[in-house]
Amino acid sequence: MDITAYTIDLTLKPTTFDAWHVCLAGTAAILAAALIITLLSMVICLARRKNNHEEPTVKIVEKVVQSEPVVQIVEKIVEVPVERIVEVEKIVEKIVQTPAPAPVVLKEASADAALQLLYLLQNDARFIDFIKEDMSAHSDEDVGMVARVIHEGCNKVLDEHFSFAHICKENEGDRITLLDGYDAAKVRVTGNIVGNPPFTGTIIHKGWQITDVRLPSTVQGYNASIIAPAEVEL
Description:
mainly alpha, about 45% helix, about 10% strand
C-alpha cells in the first residue's frame, strides 16, 4: 500500500467555502467568545477577593489610630509622722475656734464739749478773736505782743480744765526701740519703714495725751453754740 497517497499538504488553501467550513468557523468564534468571558469572570472574581481582603485591614488600622492611651495609676503610701499630724490638727482647731472679729462700732462725738472748750478759750484768751483777725493789717511787733497775751490765756484754760502728759518719757533726739505689738495710736512711725517690728529710731516729738478732763457742768437749756455773745455798751 502506498502511504504517500494519503499525505496532507498543509500549505494548500481551500478553494471552496461549504457548510462544513461555516460550522468550523462558527465553532471557533464561539470557543473564542467563551474563552474571553471566562477570562473576564476570573479577573472580576480576583478583584472582588482583593477588595474583601483589604477591608478588615483598614478597620484594624482605624481602631489602632483611634484607641486611647492606657493610663496606669500607681498608689503610693506616704508615712507622715504623728507629731506632724497633731500639729496640723491643732492649727485646724485654732482656725475653727478663732472667733470672728467684732464689728466696728462708731462712737458719736459730743459737739457740746467741743463748743464749751471754744467758749472757754474765747472767754479767757480771746482765742477766736485772734484767729479770725486779719493779721495783714498789723505789724509783726503788734502781732507778737497780742500773741503773747493769747498764749498766756490759752495756757491758763488748758491747765485749768485738762491734765497733760508726754507719751514718751525719753527726750527728743534720743534713740528708742519699738517692740512688736506697740500701740500705733500712741506712736506714729515715719521715715523708711521696712519689714516688721522691732523698729529703732529717733524721737522727733514726745507726743501728748490727756489724762484728765475737768470741763464745767452746764445747766439745762444752755446753748453751747454761743461761743461769745455780742456786747452792747449803754
